[in-house]
Amino acid sequence: MPGVYISYTFCSQKCSFCNFASGVSAPDSIAQYQHALLAEIRAFEWTWQPQPIYFGGGTPSLMGADFLREVMTGIPCAALQEVTLECAPGTVTPEAAALWQLSGVNRISLGVQSFVRKELRQTGRRHDAEIVARELALLRSAGLANVNIDLIAGLPEQTLASMDESLAWIERLAAPHVSLYIFEIDEDSRLGNEVLLGGQRYGAPRVPNDELTAQLYEKASQALRRMGYHHYEISNYAHSGFESRHNLKYWLLEPYAGFGLDAHSFDGRRRFSNADTFEAYFKGEKPPDTTSDSAEEHFFVGLRLLDGIEPTPAEWQRFAAPIDKWERAGMLERAGPRLRLTPPAVLVSNEIFQEFLNV
Prior knowledge:
Elements: E1 3-8, H1 27-43, E2 52-57, H2 65-73, E3 82-87, H3 94-102, E4 107-113, H4 117-123, H5 129-141, E5 147-153, H6 160-173, E6 177-182, H7 190-197, H8 210-226, E7 230-233, E8 236-238, H9 245-251, E9 256-259, E10 264-266, E11 270-273, H10 278-282, E12 290-291, H11 294-302, H12 313-318, H13 320-328, E13 332-335, E14 338-341, H14 349-354
């Protein structure tokens, strides 16, 4: 299922936990970016028909309907199955939802992150649970019932009790897909950098420690499974038939084309990306391409799927040592010809995946 990713990097405010190449920009910068993005899409040589399209960011729900239609007209649509638009709660209106649906969007991803007001305020988010409920009802009435809700475990002020509050809202709203992420402490976000520096801003002293963050994730994961969500990928849960085609193409190593600032592409063999600054992107500068090791990527990417992978005979032999190590540790298991993570391995998956690189 080859796909397309569109990077729309603009937001009304920069959230403290965000580590993407996005932010607030002046109208003339937005206009210049839109012009460059359309030119990049129109210049692409389409040798295949995309099935999923994903508008990420940033906050793509802020883009005008006319620009959205222009982007869609530049992409072959004969085989489209899924067109996802990321939305920040508070940006959904009846008019916008109707126009999104008319433009071909059939899936919405709501960046909720939490339903608890004090957690949201610590990170700079302006919505609350009632806004999410109202906008989800609005989307459904516009024919956009295929909705994902993002949650984050490890936000400032978060406790096991407050996670229960968010999970109660998830159960009440019954969106067909939920993404559950662990807050990553790194220097690429303002909050992560503040934690690393031992600072006081952005609620950094109130970020849960590793043990509590693991408990928050596990509590949420168990609750989602009890609600009937299928845990199909480390961070993704869905009702049957609502798995994200966009997500699956990454883990199944399907090709995709990325357009816009810091967008990445994969043609089945090579990985390449666009520049991550406006100045370099407008000049058409690009980082060097990389050639992937298909066996390494089969493990590094494919094992994110909870169903696991089916290694080839050569891969069983090449990776015998790390497979044996993590099997003995109870983190990998065999199911017939397949190899997959065990439930406890999800929280240390990155450590496991690293062992399949450069073997």
